[in-house]
Amino acid sequence: MLVRVGAEAGAPPYEQIRVQVRDAVRSGELAAGSKLPTVRRLADDLGLAVNTVARAYRELEGDGVIETRGRNGSFVRAQGDASERAAQEAAHAYADTVRRLGIDGDTARAYVEAALRD
Question: pTM value?
Answer without folding.
Answer: 0.73
